[in-house]
Amino acid sequence: MNKITILIATLLCISLVTNAQTKPQMVLVEGGTFQMGNPGTAIPKGDSDERPVHKVTVNSFYIATTEVTVKEYKQFIDADASTTDFLSKREHKMPAAPDSAWYAEHPDTKKFYPLPSQPWWDWQDALPMHHITWYDAVAYCNWLSQKEGLQKCYSLNADGGIDLDVTKNGYRLPTEAEWEFAARGGNKSKGTIYSGSATANLVCWYDDSSKLKGPQKVGTKQANELGIYDMSGNVWEWCSDYYTKDYYAKSPENNPINLSPTAYRVLRGGSWHYQVDHATITSRDGPEPHFTNYNYGMRLARSSN
Q1: Strand, coil or helix: 43
Q2: I want to staple 257 with a disulfide (CB 3.0 to 4.6 A). Which of 32, 153, 175, 225 is the partner?
Q3: How many structural domains are present in the chain?
Q4: How far apart are CA 60 and CA 57, in angstroms?
Q5: CATH code (residue 92)
Q6: pTM for the full predicted model
């Protein structure tokens, strides 16, 4: 074999490794029963939409140990995503990196921290993917399912809405109940208010710990009881459920998921740009699914059946 042949073979191997699909690392969360929500009897007391505390039982499921990274999401962007987007055939692009103009538009940030002269960060591979809508997130789930030969969990219904089928074996966003159970540490939970600790700085990137310098590389804080990282802070994580403030008052006990259409979808976990009280395992938010900002990301889940 001559030197040119060896060089070509080496470059081909490097290309194959570089372009190989990065498979998410998943952990099995054994099913169990827990008390979901925040009773409001200790600090942080949480908001009214975190009450009442109610009994919930979830089946076993898989969840990713980290948030979807920029490297993982770039493969979706680099693929012919427009042909796999079941929503609108719209083209998916990487968002622009934030700059000083975006920073200046946020008065709380500008008030407490000096205005940077340079962009905060670039789309580094190990950062959590962020600035994505709920629609971007579920399109990514379906694309990755198709990529790995799995069944797609999301489909477009006759009314133009998005249906979820948790009996499919592909990737999806966790249900809100699954998310909180995993954030608590599942059946191994030690009952802490942040995911993995009662001390936020050990497990959480929030405004004070991040110094508002942007999201941080996934998995750099301590993991929780199940080996899951960043469920408190770093980026908010989209869930499959529709959001309503009073859902807990009417939530079923077994495998609850709010599939009654509203104009909003659930976010959980807080972020690098929010106060620590929003990074608890019970904190909820519910923006419109087409809305996003540099705080919004995602984490993958799969049914175990």
Answers
A1: coil
A2: 175
A3: 1
A4: 10
A5: 3.90.1580.10
A6: 0.90
